[in-house]
Amino acid sequence: MIAKHDDARKYDVDRDVFNRYAGLSLPRHVSYPMPTWWEDMTHDDADKMRQASDTHESACDLSLYLHIPFCEKLCKFCACNKIIVGTDRTPVREQIERYLSALETEIRQLADSIDTTRPLRQIHWGGGSPTYLLPHEMERIQTTITDVFKITDDAEIAMEIDPRTTTEAKLRTLRQLGFNRLSMGVQDFDVAVQEHVRRVQPFEMVRDLVDTIRTLGFPSVNFDLIYGMPYQTPETIQLTVEKALTLSPDRVAYYHYAQIPEKIATQRGMDYTRLPDSSTKLDMFLVGLNLFEQAGYEFIGLDHFAKSDERLTQSLRDGTVQRNFQGMTTGGDLRLYGVGVSSISHLTDVGFLQNVKEIDRYMQLVEEGQSPIDRGKWFTPDDIIRQAVLGDLYCIGELLPKRIEDRFSICFDDYFAREREILKTFEKDGLITVEPDGRIVVTKPLGRVLLRNVAAAFDAYLSSEAYRKGELATFSINA
Ligand SMILES: C[S@@+](CC[C@H](N)C(=O)[O-])C[C@H]1O[C@@H](n2cnc3c(N)ncnc32)[C@H](O)[C@@H]1O
Ligand code: SF4
């Protein structure tokens, strides 16, 4: 179903208020505390943290993330941890083989060092591009996981797929291996945008792949779209979203373009004269919000949409939706272990661990029998309370003080006295409402497009100076 043009502009926000909050770049809180605050960690630290997690009172079932860093070609906008290996496999065959062996070894080492009587309920292959691998390579790694973990019958088994490297043979293998969710990098359908960001994949390629995915019986397919890149306009975005809707994805991640050229060298090659300004990016976001909602999708968190019968939407209802490094996901009730270069583990109520980011160092450490751990963070009691607050805000767009009080035996108003003062400004500006039953509700659309500003008030690691000096006006949108 394609929406009428007028419908695409139904939602709007108070631009004066919006502009007062536009300016500073704020965290998206895919983790709290953000990685800036993590510390160096050793093999022994990793062992201690895993043991503490196994014996913790909140010890729960397991989720596994695998990182496959390889991609054939570079997309200029890409902020992921990837290695571009080209289309010819010959020169890199040994490197791929060595990486896959290291990955197998790490999976076995991990299984030896944690309590695997707990079942594995979720597996996510991310990258880079896991579809760079050949069918037998995918099978080899998945079989290793099946050998050492107890995978539940209803486990969610997902892979991020790049349409340009996804063949029917690979999809058949994935389906046979039990994969039931695919997340496809679509990004944008506009030819000028695709050419500029060097991510050329015609609409027909995506359409045909979706047909094959459905024919093979995969229950769920997600599209990643990005708005805010050079050459995109609200009109081109509208066409992209409308084309995407004709393929009826079960979920959509509608990402704001994260522009960090100081860290991502390839982004410096973008034409910055053609970057949309923050008001135009807001228009783009609202176009997506309007069109997805009119097509019956539920808006989840900061930037995700899902059909009402989708697992993510159910997870929103039963309170197990979470925000993590893979975006909004189910499995908020699981302990996440990451394997592969740069991967991150989130051991509920205990801490974060991250593997080294250099592939050669990663392979060397694993081959020596060491944990390839580089950094991490033990949570403080305050971190855990604030994670719960940020989880409510980002996932359900509401903060339930009573729930926080019951769970942590604190008085919300005393504990968050400083934040309560800031919330008064947000309420005055229309970013939140405070309901008679005490719920703090982020308004839609204004509060939701400024959700990061609301969340920042609860981030104890951000300087509180800005709040005291009344510099809230310089805080930015989802940028
Ligand atoms: C690992 S990739 C997905 C799989 C595969 N490599 C592909 O591109 O199809 C993860 C997703 O991150 C998103 N992404 C990458 N760089 C981004 C950026 N700078 N800003 C926003 N989203 C970005 C893209 O939407 C991409 O699909
Ligand atoms: S967007 Fe995907 S395919 Fe493109 S470089 Fe990044 S990880 Fe690789």
Calculate the terminal CA-CA distance, rounded to whole Å.
30 Å
CATH superfamily of the largest domain: tm_1862 like domain
What is the approximate shape?
globular
By DSSP, the count of extended strands is: 20
CATH architecture of the largest domain: Alpha-Beta Horseshoe
CATH class of the largest domain, named Alpha Beta
Number of helices: 18
Structural classification: alpha/beta
Quick recap of the structure?
The chain has 479 residues and is an alpha/beta fold. The protein is built from 18 helices and 20 strands. The protein has a nine-stranded mixed β-sheet, with helices on both faces. The chain has a four-stranded antiparallel β-sheet with strand order 1-17-16-15, with helices on one face.
Task: Tag the structure with descriptive keywords.
479 residues, pyruvate-formate lyase- activating enzyme, Arc Repressor Mutant, subunit A, 2 domains, four-stranded antiparallel β-sheet, 18 helices, 39% helix, 19% strand, globular, binds S-adenosylmethionine, binds iron/sulfur cluster
Structure description:
The chain is of the alpha/beta class and 479 residues long. It has 2 domains: 28-355, tm_1862 like domain (pyruvate-formate lyase- activating enzyme); 381-474, Arc Repressor Mutant, subunit A. The chain is built from 18 helices and 20 strands. It has helices at residues 15-21, 43-55, 93-113, 135-148, 168-176, 191-197, 203-215, 234-246, 278-294, 311-318, 359-367, 381-396, 401-408, 412-415, 417-429, 446-449, 451-456, 465-468, and strands at residues 39-40, 62-68, 70-71, 83-84, 120-127, 151-161, 181-187, 220-227, 251-256, 298-300, 304-306, 322-324, 327-329, 335-339, 344-347, 351-355, 373-378, 398-399, 432-434, 440-442. A 9-stranded mixed sheet has the order 10-11-9-8-7-6-5-2-14, sandwiched between helices. It has a 4-stranded antiparallel sheet with strand order 1-17-16-15, covered by helices on one side. α4 (135-148) links the parallel β5 and β6 (151-161). It starts with 14 loop residues before the first helix and ends in an 11-residue tail after the last helix. The model is unreliable at 1-5 and 467-479 (pLDDT under 50). It binds S-adenosylmethionine and iron/sulfur cluster. Iron/sulfur cluster (SF4) binds at residues 71, 74-75, 78, 80, 82, 127-129, 162, 185.
